[in-house]
Amino acid sequence: MDTGDLQDCIHHRFDQVKLLTTALTHSSYANEQECNDDNERLEFLGDAVLELCISEEGFKRFPEAPEGQLTRIRSQLVKEKSLATLAREMKLNKYILLGKGEELQGGRERDALLADAFEAVLGAVFLDGGFEAAKQTILHVFRDKWPEQAKVPETKDYKSRLQEVSQDRFKDRPIYALVGTSGPEHEKVFDVDATLPTGEVFRGSGSSVKRAEQDSAMRALDYLFDM
């Protein structure tokens, strides 16, 4: 398989081309070929590298943005739909090795599969060239995806706003539940789930239950206004 155009697209030339081949190998293909070289482990690695690079770049681009806004920007950039769009722009789908069944079921165009392959390619770049090479690839492919500025939220009371939106759209209100705590007594972190009437669940964290509820409400609002 000739991946020259793909390597040009991601601005990285592989010394170990087998890493790229593995990144493009879906588990369905590996199972058919009775081999263990699928892209799931590379996807795991690429996901971590991507989150770190996007976090660092967002921190530099938006020096006045609070943590919550940086989190929202990162979430928008690295969500499945965004990564699948990038994969299509790179024509990554034409390089992915799929099993016959997955191919027949339209796997080559599935967002989840494309996003996973994209992250696997980043993991392969990291192993082949190190963190700096992976960072340069990420900065290149995301170069025109960043917002011009961090959005100033209309309100900091995300719970009230979510209740208004939920009542308007679903004729019911969200439900909040404390699902866990962690950390020492003087630095506890609380985890709260906000469940919409439609069943979607969004987990938030904070130094108090109230802050965790606000965080989970903010994540739910991000989802609702990006549908």
CATH architecture of the largest domain: Orthogonal Bundle
Helicity, as a percent range? 55-70%
The order of strands across the largest sheet is: 1-2-3
Query: Structural class given helices, strands, pairing?
Result: mainly alpha
Number of helices: 11
Using DSSP, what is the number of strands?
A: 3
Return the string of H and E elements.
Answer: HHHHHHHHHHEEEH
Weakly predicted, low-confidence segments:
none
The overall number of domains is 2
Mean pLDDT: 91
Shape: globular
What Rg, in angstroms, do the CA atoms define? 20 Å
Strand content: 5-15%
The fold-level CATH name of the largest domain is Ribonuclease iii, N-terminal Endonuclease Domain, Chain A
Describe the structure.
- The chain is 56% helix and 9% strand.
- The chain has eleven helices and three strands; from the N terminus they run ααααααααααβββα.
- A hairpin with a 5-residue loop joins β2 and β3.
- α2 (17-23) packs antiparallel against α8, α4 (40-61) packs across α5 (67-78) and α10 (158-170) packs across α11 (209-224).
- It is globular and about 55 Å long.
- The mean pLDDT is 91.
